[in-house]
Amino acid sequence: MTQALENAVGFPEEQRFFRRGLSWEKFKAIQASFENVPGVRLFYCEGVLEIASIGKPLRRLSV
């Protein structure tokens, strides 16, 4: 799972992955494994884990 998300970080748009039925302890273990992975954010609420890869910011053109 880590490898797939590390590859997803290079994509220009944000991507989200969900996993339901996780305990808080399992979330903390997963969170620790992503500690040094840039561009990935983890969220947890009521047993649902959300992993979001942060997309590259779009360039704005000055007109």
List keywords for this structure.
single chain; 63 residues; alpha+beta; three-stranded antiparallel sheet; 2 helices
Fold blueprint:
Layout: H1 2-8, E1 15-20, H2 24-33, E2 40-45, E3 48-53
Commentary on this structure:
The chain has 63 residues and is of the alpha+beta class. The chain has one domain (2-53). 27% of the residues lie in helices and 29% in strands. The chain is built from two helices and three strands; from the N terminus they run H-E-H-E-E. It has helices spanning 2-8, 24-33, and strands at 15-20, 40-45, 48-53. The chain has a three-stranded antiparallel β-sheet with strand order 1-3-2, with helices on one face. It is elongated, with a radius of gyration of 14 Å. 3% of the residues are buried.
| Low-pLDDT stretches | none
Assign the structural class, choosing from mainly alpha, mainly beta, alpha/beta, alpha+beta, or little secondary structure.
alpha+beta
Number of domains: 1
Write down the secondary-structure element order: HEHEE
Number of helical stretches of at least 4 residues: 2
Arithmetic mean pLDDT: 80
Radius of gyration: 14 Å
Helix content estimate? 25-40%
The count of DSSP E runs of length 2 or more, i.e. the number of strands, is: 3
Most strands sheet: 3 strands, antiparallel
Strand arrangement, largest sheet?
1-3-2
Q: Choose one word for the global shape.
A: elongated
Bin the strand percentage: 25-35%
Terminal Cα separation, in Å?
42 Å
